[in-house]
Amino acid sequence: MSFPDKHQRKTCWDARDKFWECLDEHNIKDNSDHPKACAEFRKLFENSCPPKWVSHFDRKRDYNIFKVQMQKEGFEPIKDAA
């Protein structure tokens, strides 16, 4: 597959945003958990974007959620077992 043109990129990003909005509406934080209500949005997302982009965007959403959680809750450093 050649690199997506401007229209294809916009279609991909719009499909991604709709899928993410659906996940947010259902309070889904884990990308591996897809509610049935979002199945059509996921399918559209996967059909609108190159597979590498889908996996990249999935990881990006997971990281963004993790980053927000760390900013809100902080973290506890790992203690040495020595």
From TrEMBL:
<dbReference type="Pfam" id="PF02297">
    <property type="entry name" value="COX6B"/>
</dbReference>
<keyword id="KW-1015">Disulfide bond</keyword>
<dbReference type="GO" id="GO:0008535">
    <property type="term" value="P:respiratory chain complex IV assembly"/>
</dbReference>
<dbReference type="GO" id="GO:0005739">
    <property type="term" value="C:mitochondrion"/>
</dbReference>
<dbReference type="InterPro" id="IPR042289">
    <property type="entry name" value="COA6"/>
</dbReference>
<dbReference type="InterPro" id="IPR036549">
    <property type="entry name" value="CX6/COA6-like_sf"/>
</dbReference>
<keyword id="KW-0496">Mitochondrion</keyword>
<protein>
    <recommendedName>
        <fullName>Cytochrome c oxidase assembly factor 6 homolog</fullName>
    </recommendedName>
</protein>
<dbReference type="GO" id="GO:0042775">
    <property type="term" value="P:mitochondrial ATP synthesis coupled electron transport"/>
</dbReference>
<dbReference type="InterPro" id="IPR048280">
    <property type="entry name" value="COX6B-like"/>
</dbReference>
